[in-house]
Design a protein that fits this description.
By secondary structure, the chain is α+β, with helices and mostly antiparallel strands. Helix content is 23%, strand content 35%. A six-stranded antiparallel barrel has the order 1-2-5-4-3-6.
C-alpha cells in the first residue's frame, strides 16, 4: 500500500456541510505536532471496528467555508452509513489527489467530490496492495 500518512482519532462534531451536499464526513482533530502531510484531498482507507472502507479524505481548513481555526482531517467513507461520533477511526492516506481549494459554492465543491469519488472507485486497486485486499476486503 502506498501509505503516505496514518491518522487515528475520535470522531468529533463538524460543521455538517458534508451532509448538505450528500457527502457526510467523519471528522478527526489532528494535533499540529502530528501533521505529516500536505493539506489537500487524498484517497483513503478507513479502518473502523476491524472493517476497511474506501474513503476520500480532506486534510486542512475548509477553505470553501473558511470557518476553521485549526486543521482537521475529514473523511467521506464510501458505502457507510453509521453514527460513529465518539468512536475511534484509523485513516490511512493512500494517494494525494489534489490540493485544498476554495470553491465558489458548496455545489461546486459537491461536483468536485463526485469526480474524486469516481477516480477512487476506478483506481483504488492500483494503489492498495493485493495482500490488504485479500485479507481485509474493502466494504
Amino acid at each position: 500500500m502506498e501509505n503516505i500518512g496514518i491518522y487515528s482519532g475520535i470522531v468529533v462534531d463538524g460543521l455538517q456541510n458534508g451532509r448538505l451536499i450528500n457527502f457526510p464526513t467523519a471528522n478527526i482533530d489532528v494535533e499540529s505536532s502530528e501533521i505529516k502531510n500536505d493539506f489537500g484531498v487524498y484517497m483513503a482507507v478507513v479502518e473502523y471496528e476491524k472493517n476497511m472502507y474506501l474513503g476520500i479524505a480532506n486534510f486542512g481548513y475548509h477553505p470553501t467555508e473558511s470557518k476553521l481555526l485549526a486543521p482537521i482531517l475529514e473523511t467521506y467513507i464510501l458505502n457507510f452509513d453509521e453514527d460513529i461520533y465518539g468512536k475511534i477511526l484509523n485513516v490511512f492516506l493512500i494517494k494525494f489527489l489534489r490540493g485544498e481549494k476554495k470553491f465558489a459554492s458548496l455545489n461546486e465543491l459537491k461536483k468536485q467530490i463526485e469526480k474524486d469519488k469516481i477516480f477512487v472507485l476506478e483506481n483504488y486497486k492500483k494503489y492498495i496492495n493485493d495482500v490488504i485486499l485479500k485479507n481485509m476486503p474493502l466494504k
